[in-house]
Amino acid sequence: MIFDTDMFIWVQRGNTKAAELMERTRERYLSIQTYMELLQGAQKKTQHTIIKNFLTEYHFKVLPLTENIGHRASIYIEEYALASGVRSGDAIIAATAVENNMTLSSSNAKHFRIINELQFKPFTP
């Protein structure tokens, strides 16, 4: 399963449901977009270390941005941005899930439910 950026934020805020979902998931993935968003949200260099250690300790695998993912994400922007507010980061994350034939878990259903080929698992905090 691929986890959206918001899922990591829920864990950081102490949400036990989000943490339990991650713990129960055998194979844990995140897109390179989520990885960059997590690092960008850090306010100190030590937070980068905490993020990296968490991802390593829980065996998360970062999925790269490929040409196919970039192409699919641009199509999502063209098709869905006006109707649902899908932004480029969300489009890359969704395209990463679709291209890797994985389910995406997020509490941000508004931006993801509209994408028909996306296997989406909504999370309610």
Order of helices and strands: EHHEHHEHHEHE
End-to-end Cα distance, whole Å, is 18 Å
The helix count comes to: 7
> How many discrete domains?
1
Structural class: alpha/beta
If strands are numbered along the chain, what order do they take across the biggest sheet? 1-4-5
Q: What summary fits the major beta sheet? A: 3 strands, parallel
Examine the secondary-structure arrangement and name the CATH architecture: 3-Layer(aba) Sandwich
Specify the overall morphology: globular
What brief labels describe this structure?
125 residues; Rossmann fold; two-stranded parallel sheet; 58% helix; 14% strand; globular
Describe it for me?
The chain is of the alpha/beta class. It has helices at residues 5-12, 16-24, 32-40, 45-57, 67-84, 88-99, 109-112, and strands spanning 2-3, 28-31, 60-63, 103-106, 119-122. The strands form 2 sheets. Strands 1-4-5 form a 3-stranded parallel beta sheet. Helix 7 (109-112) links the parallel strand 4 and strand 5 (119-122). The model has no long low-confidence stretch (mean pLDDT 96).
Short summary of the structure?
The chain has 125 residues and is of the alpha/beta class. Helix content is 58%, strand content 14%.
Secondary-structure map with pairings?
Blueprint: E1 2-3, H1 5-12, H2 16-24, E2 28-31, H3 32-40, H4 45-57, E3 60-63, H5 67-84, H6 88-99, E4 103-106, H7 109-112, E5 119-122
Parallel strand pairs: 1-4, 2-3, 4-5
Helix pairs in contact: 1-2, 5-6
